[in-house]
Amino acid sequence: MSLLNKTKGDKVIWALVVLLALMSLLVVYSSTGSLAYKMYRGNTEVYLFKQVVFICIGILFIYFAHQVNYTLYSRIAQVVFILTIPLLIYTLFFGVRLNEGSRWIRLPIINLTFQTSDLAKLALFMYISRMLSKKQEVIKDFKKGFLPVIIPVGITCMLIAPANLSTALLVGATSMMLLFIGRVSMKHLFLTGLVALVPIAMLIGAAIFQHSNGNGIQARSENKSKLTARVSTWVNRVESFMYGGNSDEDDDDNYQVNQAKIAIAKGGFFGLGPGNSEQRNFLPHPYSDFIYAIIIEEYGIIGGGVVMFVYLIFLFRSIQLFRKCPYAFGAFLALALSFTLVIQAMANMAVNVNLFPVTGVTLPLVSMGGSSFLFTCLAIGIILSVSRYVEKNEAVKTSDGEPENEMA
């Protein structure tokens, strides 16, 4: 009971976290039943118990992070950001290779892998929130205001992109939105956008050229360097999205998309009901990348709409928090972290309904637990830390008429 009394911050955000966690338990249990049966000799509850453990640890992350005065995150932002640079470089060259990319670092002793890009995202948004808050008087100046905030974004995205292009694009898009809200010159943002569009246009052009020459799928089997192999994967994904393809299992991206379409078609308006998914037996990664398709299959378009609405409410509450926070760092921090979570969620949903090329991003707080799940909980805890301060400040303002000092 004392723990509940110490729980502060936006009650709506807390409720949304609990709601998504409950949804996660239901869908992860359903989507991993067959896999658990095969892997653990009939024990279908193994992944459910693992998810319960991750959710409990994640809630603890949220609780302890929201108890910390959010100004501490400003003090450590620069150090944490600098530390992520060598981590990202190490991941590129020595990381654990999965799905043709080096995205993970394996921690010794506990033998746990985690994505350094998750830590880098968190560190980057803390850092640029700090820089935006300190550079507001000169934010329109190219050298004094723009370069100090865009260089960290460029470095982070370039280091993430070779192993995880989709995450790099999401980080870049979120950063541009934050810089726009931070009153950065539109001219500078426009020029940055043009530069960023060059590699994207090159990928699209390569996909069109590859399709016209009819060598899309065959290119996957050729012996290439790691970087060339990644570029080939990106081009093939863009090509598959633009032109579609066969449902043959040899064509992984099209196979996943087609199985997701079948799941959505079977779900219809009201769904097949909890635990009644059929495509979980055919859809690769139904518990992570394509969990939204399973949600629609079991709970219908109504269920999928509810999940989307939950993320939009989360964003709305964070925007309100941004407007109420009297100090720039807390406002930018809450908005940046909420943007990255909601944009990631929308990207995952877009992939599942074939509105976006296949990526490796998960559905925050819903996909099966891992390092990404815990970093998401940490980000939510930081948002609630800002919310806790705003509530305290409003109470002080009501009684004294003066806001509490941010650095107190």
Automatic annotation (TrEMBL):
It is a multi-pass membrane protein. Its EC number is 2.4.99.28. GO terms for biological process: cell division; peptidoglycan biosynthetic process; regulation of cell shape. The chain crosses the membrane at residues 12-35, 47-66, 72-96, 149-182, 189-209, 290-315, 327-351, 363-384. It is found in: Membrane. It catalyses: [GlcNAc-(1->4)-Mur2Ac(oyl-L-Ala-gamma-D-Glu-L-Lys-D-Ala-D-Ala)](n)-di-trans,octa-cis-undecaprenyl diphosphate + beta-D-GlcNAc-(1->4)-Mur2Ac(oyl-L-Ala-gamma-D-Glu-L-Lys-D-Ala-D-Ala)-di-trans,octa-cis-undecaprenyl diphosphate = [GlcNAc-(1->4)-Mur2Ac(oyl-L-Ala-gamma-D-Glu-L-Lys-D-Ala-D-Ala)](n+1)-di-trans,octa-cis-undecaprenyl diphosphate + di-trans,octa-cis-undecaprenyl diphosphate + H(+). This is Probable peptidoglycan glycosyltransferase FtsW.
